[in-house]
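[Discussion] Sanity-checking designs against the backbone

I'm trying to build intuition for which residues belong where. Below is a structure token string of 70 positions. I'd appreciate it if someone posts a full sequence so I can compare it with mine line by line.
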């Protein structure tokens, strides 16, 4: 699951990017409100194990985090 602590409300999406710079999964998560929200993200079965960059967009406010797929 993904915990989003948002200072703004708005439509939310995630984009999982491989280290080669290519998007491996994009998903719209719907609207979130100000504060902390938990969202369950199911990864596509074909995503290889490894390190990725997760871009989170909440109402056109972007943040990025390193994530590991095991």
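Best answer:
Here's mine. Compare freely.
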């Amino acid at each position: 699951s993904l915990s989003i602590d948002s200072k703004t409300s708005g439509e939310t999406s995630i984009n999982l990017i491989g280290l080669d710079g290519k998007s491996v999964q994009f998903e719209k998560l719907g609207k979130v409100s100000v504060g902390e929200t938990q969202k369950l993200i199911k990864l596509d079965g074909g995503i290889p194990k490894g390190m990725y960059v997760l871009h989170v967009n909440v109402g056109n406010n972007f943040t990025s985090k390193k994530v590991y797929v095991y």
